[in-house]
Amino acid sequence: MIRTNTLSRALAIASLGLGLGGCTEWLQVTNPTVVDVKVTNPPEDAPVLAASASQSFSAAYGWLIMYSGWFTGESDVSETFPTRNEFGRRAVDPTNTSHRDEVWFPVHQGIAQAYLVLGIELPNAASNVAYIRSHHTLGWAFLNLAEQFCSGTVVSGPELSTAQLLDSAVAHFTAANTQGTALNNAEGLSIARAALVGRARAHLQAGRKPNALTDANAVPAGFVYNVTTFDDLAQRARLGNRIWQFIADRGSNAVPPAYRIDDPRLPWRIAPSNLLPQDAAYATQRGIPYAIQNKYTGFATPIRLASKLEADYIAAEAQGTAAMLDLIQARRAANDQPAYSGDTGDAAVLAEFEDQRAVEFYLEGKRLGDLRRNGAAVRNVPVPGSTYWKPGFAPVSDQTCFPIPRTERDNNPNLGPG
Amino acid sequence: MRGKLRWVGALIALAAVAPPLVGQNSGTITGTVTDQATGQPLSDARISVAGSVLQTTSDPRGNYRLVNVPAGQVTLSVRRIGYRGGDQTVTLAAGGTATANFTLTASVVTLDEVIVSGTAGDTRRSAQAASVAEIGVTDIVRTAPVRTFAEILQSRVPGVQVSVGSGTSGAASQIRIRGNASLSLSNEPLVVIDGILMAANNPSQYGAGGQTTSRLSELNPKEIESIEVVKGPAASALYGADAAAGVIQIITKRGRIGNNRFSQDIGLEYHSIDANFEPLDNFGNCTPALVAPSSPNPLCRGQAAGTLVSDNPLKRTNALRTGDTKGLSWSGTGGNGTNFGYFLHGGYETERGTTLNNEFDRRNGRANLNWTPSSKLTLNASFGMNRANFALPQNDNNVYGWLGGSHLGTPLTRNDSVGPDRSEDGWFGFARQVAAIAAIENGRQTHRTIASFQANFVPTSWWSNRFTVGADWIKDEARTFYPRNSLGSYQGTTNTGAIDELRNGEERYTVDYLSDMRLTTGENLAHNLSLGAQLVDHRFDQISSSGLGLAVNSNNTIGGAASRSASQNYARTKSVGFFGQWQTTLNDRLTVNVGARMDANSSFGNTSEWFFLPKAGISYVISQEPWWNLGLINTFRLRAAYGVSGRSPSPGASLNTLTATPYMLGGAVQQGAILRNPGNDSLKAERGEEIEFGFDAGFLNDRVGLEMTYYVKTSKDLLLERPLPGSEGYSFNPFVNIGELKNKGLEVAFTAQPISSQNLGWDFRVGFSTLDSKITDMGGILPFGTTNRFMEGQQPGVFVGNRIRSIDETTGIVTVSDDLEPIGNLNPAYEGNFSTNLTLFRNLRLYASLDGKGDFYIYNNTAFFRETQSVRSDNRLDPDKLSRLERLRRYGNPTAGQPAFVRERLVSGFPTTATVNEVRDAFVEKGDFLKLREVSVTYTLPTGLASAFRASGASITLAGQNLATWTNYSGFDPEVISNIAATGLNAFTRTDFLTLPTPRRFIVRLNAQF
Question: Partner of B931 at 20 to 30 A CA spacing, among A127, A258, B219, B892?
Fold first, then answer.
C-alpha cells in the first residue's frame, strides 16, 4: 500500500511537472538550413547581397540566351519538351512553365534582390559598391525584359511597356556608370563601361540613335565585360555556363542549317558520339546530323555580356547605311570572309548587317532584340505559317516577343488579365 | 544519450516499485471460447477481469487461462471482433481454479467492443460519440490477397479513400480520410502504432518520375492484430493538432498471458504478378528517305512514302515480365503459464515487379512482451524491426522510363543496320533500350526500429493510469546510379557515370500519459474524469551527395567520381499537449462527454502558439431503454460529436529567410545569399471544426447492421503557400491564412449475416460514402492553377480548361470559353464497395470484394502527349480513325494559318486565340470505375488431416487481385496518380502520364499452425 501511494504521488507530480514551466522553452528549435533575415546586418551585408543579385542575373542570362536562341532560330530545339518546342515554333503560351521557371523567375530573382539592396541606407551612396552592383544588375535585367518580353513588371508592380522598360534600363545604367566611375576602382570602372554599352543598346532599341551613338563612342577600345562562370557540380545551375550545360547534360541545342557556316566567329562541330540530342529523332526529322556550337566548350567558359565590338555595331547602326557597310567590310575582312558585294541599298545593307551581327554575337541573347528592332531584315528566323521541322507539331506562329506568364497575372494584383 | 539512459532508468524504477504477485489470495480461471452457430473454437477473443488490468486472449483452440486473479466474485468480459460480447461472474476461491466458458454469437453490431483509439474514460463503443472504424487484420491477411498496409485499408472503411499510385511494386498509395483537410499541409492521416506516433509519410528519396515509396509499406500486416480509424472530431483531442487529417491506430499482436502453450504459425505464399495492360503501338508516316532500298528502317524500306507504320517496343522486345512475390513468415505465441506472454514474428518477402528494375523486399521482426506483475499493473513492451528495400523503375514523367521509352518512341527510328544499341531503334532515347533502362538503379533501403513501452497501473478500482513511451528510429539509404557507358544511352554527362546518395536519419519520440478516474453517484450515474499529456520530439537530418564521372562502373561510390557535391537538410519539431475530458453516463446507455486539449509546437520558429481544441459528444443507446420495442430493430444508437483541430506548418514558416548560395566575383567563388521566403509575422494555426451525426442500428437480432454518419468538416484560416508572382523574386511561397474549405459527406455501412449455421455461413458488407468538398472562401486570393485550379465554389484542385463552346465542322473553327472553367472533380464524389464471405461445411470459405469510385476526372496526359506533343498515336496520324468532329474537338482547327482554337471574347473586333494546352476537354476524362478487387478461396484442412502433418491446423488460399475493371476511361487504369510523390498544392492532381497500371495478381498462400 505504501508503495502504491508513493507511485501514485510520483505520477501525479510528474503530470504536474509536465504541465508547468519549461514547455515554451522546450519547444524552441533552431533551423540551420535557412538564413533568418533577422540575423543579417543589412549595411554590412549589402555588398554580398548585391553580388548575389548580380549572380542571379548572370544565371538567368544563360537561360535568356537559350530560350531566345530557340525562338529566333539561332538554335534548333533538339529535345522533346513541348514547352521548349513552343519556342522553336514561336508560339509561347502564357502557361508555359519552363519559361516561367527558367527565364521569368530567375531574371526577377536578381531584380527583386537588387531593389532590396537599393532600399538599404548605406554610407558613401554616390560610390557604394553595393548600389553600383545593384544598378548594373537592374540595367541588364530591364534591358533584356524590354527586348524579349512584350511587356513586363517588377516586384508585383503594374504592367510596363517596352518603352518604360527601356527607360528604366537607361536610368539604372546611368546610375551604374556614374557611381562606378566615382568609385574608380577596377570593378567600378568595369561596370561603368559595361553600363555604357548597355545604355547605348537600350537607346538604340528605343529608337534614340544619337544617344546610342554617344554612349557607344564613349566605350574604350578593346573593352569586354564577361559573365564569368565556374565548374562546380553542385552549383552548375547557378555558376556554370548554361548553354554548355544544356548541351552536355541534356542535348537540347543543335546548330540549325543556316548557322552551319565557315566563319571563325561562329564555331560549331558535328557532335561527338558522347554528346547526343535529347530528342533521339533529331537527325531523322531534321535530315542533318546533330551539330553543336563550339563557342562555349565547357561549364567554365565565360559569356560575353558587353563589349566595344558591340558598341561599334551600335554606333554603326545609329549612323546609318554607310557606317554599317564600312563595319560589315571591316569585320568580314578581319575574319577571312570575302568582301560584301551585294546590293548597297538600305534594306539590303541592313539585312547583311544583321547577318554579321548574327555571326558576331551568336548565342549572346541579342537576336530577339534585333528582330523586334529591325523586323524582316533579321533572317533565318522561323517563318510564321511554315511547317515546323518536327512532324506532328502545329505550324510556326508569328510571335515576336514573350508573354508575361499566366501565374504572374494570376498572382500580381496590379496586372490585368492580359 | 544521457537523456535516453534516464528514460531507461525511469522505466526500470517503475517496474521495481510494482507490487509483488498476489499469490495466496488469488486463483486461476480457465475456459474455452466457441462460436455459438458452428461450435468451432474462437481464437483471439480477449478475456478481461473487471476492475483490474488482467486480460488475455484465447488460443487457436479457443482456450484461455488467467492466473493470479484476486479471489472472490470475479466478473469476466469477453470481446471479439464480429461477435457480441459476453460477461460472466464466477466465484473464485483463494488458491483455487474456476472455469468460465463462453459461447459467442456472431453479430454485425458490436456496441460493447472496446475501442483503443481516440477514447478516454469509458472505452466501449457504446460510449463513443464519434465514429471509429475497426478492421480485424488477422482474418484479412489470412484470406484476402493483400500485402501492404494500404491494401488493408482499401475499400474497407467508408470515408477512407485510398488511391493507388501505380502498378509499380513498392510504390506508395494516397490515403485520405474524409477528403482533404488542408491545401498546403499534409493530408495524410496521423498514424499511431501501439500508442506512439510513427512516420507514415512518403520518405525523401530520389525521384522516379512521379512515384515514390511509403513508410507504411515497411510494416508487415501479419504483425498487426487490428487497425482503428478515427475519422471524426475525436482525433484531435487525444492525438493533438496533427490529427486534423484523421488518425489510424495500429495495434500489433500480443502474447497470451496465462497460457503456457507455445503455438506457432507458419505462412508461405507466392504471387504471380501480371502487368495487366497491353502496351500502346507507336505510329509514324514513312519519309521518302526511309522508304529507299538503302533505308535502315525495316518497317519503311520498300513502302510508299507516307505509309503509316507502327511499332511496339515493349512488346517487340518482350521487356515486361511476369512478376512474383515469395513470402515466408513465422510467428510464435505463448506465455509462461502465469503472468507473462509473448508474441514473436519474423517475416521475409521478396517481390519482383513487372518491369526489370523493380523490386521490393521486406524483412520484419517483432517481439511483443506482456507482463502482469499484479492485478494492478501490466507492462507491455513492443519492439519491431524491419529492413525494407525498394527499387523503383523510372516511369511516369521521365525520359528514362519504361513506358516513356516505349510509348514515346517512333517507328521511324527502327534501324536494322547498326544494331539496336547504336540507334534509338523505335524507342524514345538513343541507345536506350531494354538493357540501358534496366541498368538504371533507383532505390531506398531503410532500417527501422519502432519500440514502445506501456504501463497500465490501476492503484484502485476507480483510478487507472496509462503511461506510454516509445520511439521510431529510421535510417534511410537512398541511391540512384546511371552506369558509365560509351553508347550515349543517357543524357550528356550522365553517360560518364552518375551517382546520387542520400542518407536520412529520423527520430520521433513520444511520451504519453493518460489518467482515468471513475466516480459513481447514485445507482445510475457514472462519471469519468480523464487527464493526459503528450510530448513529441521529431528530428530529421539528411545528407545528400552526388558524383559524376566514374573510372569503372564497379567503383560506383561518390569517392570514385571525378566531380562531387554534397548538401544537408535538417529539421526539428517538438510538440506538447495537455488533455482533459469529463464523461458522464446515465443508466449505462446515455453518455455525454466534454473535453479539451491545449497544444503547442515549434512550428512557428521563435513563437509558440497554444491552440485550444475543445470537443463534445453524446451517445445514446436508445434500444436499451425499457420501453424500446421496435420489433425488427433490436439495437439502435444515436450519436453526435463535435471537435476542433488546429494545425501549423513546418518549423520556421513565419520567418523571413534567405538561402545561402554562391556568387562569382573577381574570378573567385564566394558565399552569398538570395531571397528565399518573405515569411509572415501574423501567421496562425489552421483551425478545423468537425461535426458529425449518426446512428448504429441492428436488425433481426443483430444479424443485419446499418451505420450511417453525416459529417461536416470545415477548415478555417486555411494555411496556403500563397503563390507569389515570380516578379517578387522569392524562391519559396510564404504561408498565409486564407478563407475556408468545407467537406461534407455521408458514410454508410450495411452489414448482414443472413446465414450462420454449422455448415453454411454467408455474410456481406456494403459500404458507401460521399464527399462534397468545396473551397467556400478564397480570402481575397485570386483563383490560381492551370490544369488543377483553386477557386471558390469548387473542389480544391478542380480540373479546368478553356471549355469548348461550339465546333463548326464546315469552317473548322472551334470556339472555346474566354477563361479557364471547371471541368470536373479531382477527387471522387462517391465511393462504394461490396464484400462477401461464403463459408461451406466449415472448411471452405469464398471471399470477394468489388469497389468503385464515381464523379471524378483524370487527366490522360499519355494520350495528350502522344496526340498533340510528341505525336505517336494513330488517333492523330491516321486521318480516318476519328471523325472530323472528334479531331476538331481534340486538336482544333487544322487549317494552315488559322488558330487551333478561338476564344469567345473579341479584342478590337478580332477573336483571341487559345492553344491545345489550354483546351483539354478531350483529355481530361471521367475516371468512374468499378473493380473486382479481390477474390479468394480458402480451404481449412480438417483437424485430422492437418495432424497428419503434425499441425494443429492448416489452410490453403487461392486468390486473385484486380481481376476486372469496368470504366469508360480510355487509358489503362483510372485509379493511378502519376505524381503521387508531390506534396502541398502540387498533390492536388490526378494525372495518368506514362504510368504503370495496377497489376493483376494471383496468389497461393499456405498457413499452418503447430
Answer: B219
User: What is the pLDDT, as a whole number, of residue A69?
Assistant: 98
The residue of chain B with its CA nearest to that of A106 is B729
Nearest to B996 by CA among B151, B211, B315: B211
Task: Give B-chain residues touching A276 at CB under 8 angstroms.
Answer: 430, 488, 491-492
> Tens digits of per-residue pLDDT, B810-832?
999 999 998 889 999 999 999 99
Q: What is the spatial distance between Cα B545 and Cα B564, in angstroms, rounded to a whole number?
A: 7
pLDDT at A416: 78
pLDDT (mean) for A120-139: 96
Burial, B628: exposed, middle or buried (Cβ in 10 Å; 0-12, 13-18, 19+)? middle
Residue B204 touches chain A, beta carbons under 8 Å: no
Q: Would you call B802 an interface residue with chain A, using a CB distance cutoff of 8 Å?
A: no
Task: Count CB pairs under 8 A between chains A and B.
Answer: 285
Put simply, the answer to whether B674 touches A56 (Cβ < 8 Å) is yes
Q: Give the residue from B31, B101, B26 showing the smallest Cα distance to B64.
A: B31
Give dist(CA A68, CA B451) in Å, integer: 58
CB neighbour list of residue B621: distance below 8 Å, 6 or more residues apart: B111, B126, B589, B590, B635, B636, B637
> Which of A333-347, B298-312, B689-703 bottoms out in mean pLDDT, i.e. has the lowest?
B689-703
Helix A308-319 and helix A186-205: axis angle, to 10°?
Answer: 30
Percent of chain B with pLDDT over 90: 56
Flag whether residue A383 sits within 8 Å of chain B, measured between CB atoms: no
Query: Which residues in chain B have Cβ-Cβ distances shorter than 8 Å to A7?
Result: 14, 17, 457, 459
| pLDDT tens-digit series, residues B920-952 | 889 999 999 999 999 999 999 988 888 888 888
What is each CA distance from B200 to B172, B192, B218, B506, in whole angstroms?
Answer: 11, 9, 10, 12
CB atoms near residue A416 (< 10 Å)? 8
**B-chain residue closest to A141, CA distance:** B727
> In this predicted model, which residue has the larger pLDDT, B117 or B99?
B99
Determine the Cα–Cα distance for residues B147 and B159; give it in Å rounded to an integer: 22
| Residue contact B289–A287, C-beta within 8 A | yes
Q: Mutate which of B657, B727, B788, B918 to disrupt the A interface (most A C-beta within 10 Å)?
A: B727
Helix or strand holding residue B308 (H, E): strand B308-311
Note whether A108 contacts B289, CB cutoff 8 Å. no
**Confidence class of residue B18 from pLDDT cuts 50, 70 and 90?**
very low
Do residues B595 and B580 lie in contact, with contact meaning Cβ atoms separated by under 8 Å? yes
Cα–Cα–Cα angle for B397, B502, A58, rounded to 5 degrees: 70
**Are residues B723 and A410 in contact, defined by beta-carbon separation less than 8 angstroms?**
yes
Q: Which one of B430, B576, B897 has the shortest CB-CB distance to A276?
A: B430
Burial label, B553 (beta-carbon count in 10 A; 0-12, 13-18, 19+): middle
CB contact under 8 A, A52 and B674: yes
Query: What residue has cell string 469519468?
Result: B528
Tell me the chain A residues in contact with residue B289 when contact means C-beta distances shorter than 8 Å: 287
Three-state SS annotation for A343-370: CCCHHHHHHHHHHHHHHHCCCCCCHHHH
Q: Which of B547, B567, B658 sits opposite A37 (nearest CB)?
A: B658
pLDDT of B210 reads 84
What residues 224-283 of chain A have any CB closer than 8 A to a CB of chain B? 228-235, 238-239, 247-251, 273-278, 280-281
Half-sphere exposure of B706 (CA within 13 A, CB side): 11
Cβ B78 vs Cβ B46: under 8 Å: yes
* Average pLDDT over all residues of chain A: 92
Decide if A14 touches B, using CB distance below 8 A: yes
Alpha-carbon distance A239 to A59, whole Å?
A: 7
According to the model, what pLDDT value does residue B13 have?
Answer: 41
